[in-house]
Every structure is written in structure tokens, then in C-alpha cells.
Amino acid sequence: MEFRAPTVAAQQNARAIEYLTKSLSDPEAGQRQVEELIADLGNAIDTYPDWHPILTAPPRRNSDHVSSLSQLRTYDGIDHTVEFVRGFVTCPYSDKEADQLVEAVRQVPGLQAHRLAEPLYSDHAYPVVVEAYLVELEADGTVRSRDALRWFVQQTIKEAEGYQVAETWWNIRSYILGRPHGSRSSLFVNQHAGNHMRKILEAMNDSGMFGPIKESSLDMLSQKKRDAINETLLRTAVENWDKRSEQFEFELRGETCKVKIRDTWEDGMELSIRVEIGKHDLYVSGFYYPEDDRTTYVDPTGKRKLAEKFI
After folding, report:
1. What is the extent of the structural domain holding 91?
2. 97, 109, 128, 187: which has the fewest C-beta neighbours closer than 10 Å?
3. 222 Cβ partners below 8 Å, 6+ apart?
4. Residue 214: strand pairing partners
5. Mean pLDDT in residue range 141-168
């Protein structure tokens, strides 16, 4: 489905307003405050992309990958937090913790923080606003493209030393685009920047600097094609099952398919099925219901060229 940023932004902002105001004694005043935050910090979001200054500016406990605020010591004490494109608001119940958070953030170049005079989330909370003031927004509300591209490249190269495999765009686009997102854009990144990020990542992967390319997500295939892969492998597994063995193999389209299958409730009503080719080169799992010849499943994972054999 196409990512419609204005619609998604409106939904995100409405949820943020409800979350931060529904328990206040004066929710209308709270709503005005949140609307001011949205005007200043941008649209409400779910998670930041890995390259965002909110995540990259604070010192890290170690060299591990950081993808959330809670992993950074600078933000110790955050509670009841709503994130926006340029920063976040958090609402601890401790006046002391609020002051400590403001002081910790002010020590980090590129970030600033301040207390709000009026409560959010709860009448007994002490809201703090944290802002990455170097983040500038385009007219569409996304991060300025030249900055987003530069920060993305810098962070990707910085973490390259610890890579053992090259992750495809489809595997890690949530970490590059932030959430919510579409196939190549998000509330952080417009299609122009998203397209260039994908091209840059693919060029880096093709160079071999990260190691062999790891394929996992099959989101590049349509839902109809992913469904076909599941249906083909799950139904063929059922057809080849001797109704006794919990593990067996069958050959299909030149590939050896390893199956694990069991009667979930031992009543013949539901079969739990897993089919794997290679070592997670292709993997599907789901359930088959004999009574009405119906399957349910999650999306398959694996290598695209192999998966396309079963469409």
C-alpha cells in the first residue's frame, strides 16, 4: 500500500495528543501545548532512524547498535515519552529526575532541553522537551534531504567495522527510514532522499565492504506473490505428509524442502507447519485447517530468487 504521509502524520499526531492529554484535569490546555510541540518539533513518530542526531549525538555505553532512547544514558529518567521528527517530550513523575535530564542533555553538542511549565500526560508529571536543534525540516515536514543523506552515510560507515554481512534495503529500511514508513519514504525522509539512501546502500553492499549480502525480507514482492509462496509450500507439505512423521523432506522445483509438521491439538482440526529450504534460504510457517481446506501464515523470509521459484 502506498505511504500517504499527510494521512499517516494526522493519525500519529492525533494519537500523541490523546496520549498526552487524556488524563489531564485540563485536556484542552494540554492539547494546545501538544499542538505547539508539533509545530516546533514536527510530526509525531514511532521510532527514529539510526542516523538521527537524537540517537547519534549522546555518548554511548558501548559500541553496540543503538535504536531507542532507553539505550542511552543521557536519557536516563525518561517516562511516558512521545517522539517527534526533531525531538521528543517525556513526562517523568520526579521533579528531580526532570532537572537531571535537562542538565544531562545540555551537555551534549547538538541537543538542547527545557522544562514545560504546564503538565502533560498527568497533572503530577514534569514534562521535559528534548530537541535536536541541528535538524531542519523541509516544507513537507521531513528532515532536510542533504542532512538526512549525510547523516545516513556517516552513521553507516561508522558502524561498518562491526558488520559481518551486508543487509539489504528490505531487511533494514525501518532503521534507515524510521517508523512509520513506506517502501522508500517516511515522516523523516521524503521519496527523493529515500531513493538516494537505497541507491547508496546498494552501492556499498555491492562493493563488498560489509561482507556477503544477507537476504531475509521478501517485502519487495507483492503480498499476492508472498501469499502464493506460502500456499505452494504449505499445501505441498500437507500433500506429502504420511500423517505420522513430524519431520520429513520432499522435492519441489529442484529444491529439497525440509518440513516440520504436527497436529496442534491432536484432534485433526489444525496442523502446524514449517518448511525450510537450505539454512533459512527460504522459510515459511503457518497452519492448515483440513475441515475447510484453509491456510493461515506469516510472511515468508529468505532469498528472492529462490522464493520466486514457488510463485
Report:
1. 5-132
2. 109
3. none
4. 167
5. 93
Does residue 43 lie within any of the structural domains?
yes
Three cell numbers, residue 202: 546498494
> Number of structural domains, the chain?
3
Asked if residue 246 belongs to a domain, the reply is yes
Residues 210-248 have pLDDT tens digits of 999 999 999 999 999 999 999 999 999 999 999 999 999
| Backbone torsions φ then ψ of 259, nearest 5 degrees | -120, 140
